[in-house]
Write a structure and sequence with these properties.
This is DUF2653 family protein. InterPro entries: Uncharacterised_YxcD. With 94 residues, the protein is an alpha+beta fold. The protein has 2 helices and 6 strands. The chain has one domain. Strand 5 and strand 6 form a beta hairpin. Helix 1 crosses helix 2.
Length: 94
């Protein structure tokens, strides 16, 4: 199973909104990848910025898969990747 950029962003939005106790509309996310830091997300909550590292994004995907698809997924099953067009998370069955 794969989830693509929009769902990855939604996963981070839902995760941060739940953690900060704000509505989803108060959260903005920009995903990025680089050789030094890997996958990161810059998140704005009520105009305050913070960076999430790959482990935070994986946690958000775990929770999103459970809430949206009722699937219990572990970090070891999630592989973040990107191609020329978009970001995606590939979720394996085992």
């Amino acid at each position: 199973m794969k989830i693509f950029t929009d769902e990855l962003i939604n996963a981070v939005i839902m995760h941060m909104a739940d953690r900060k106790g704000v509505p989803y509309s108060a959260v903005e996310v920009e995903l990025s990848i680089d050789d030094e830091h890997g996958f990161t997300a810059e998140v704005w909550v009520n105009q305050r910025s913070q960076y999430l590292v790959e482990s935070n994004i994986l946690e958000a995907v775990e929770q999103y898969m459970y809430k949206q698809y009722q699937l219990r997924v572990f970090r070891s099953q999630i592989r973040l990747d990107a191609d020329d067009e978009e970001f995606f998370a590939e979720i394996s069955d085992s």
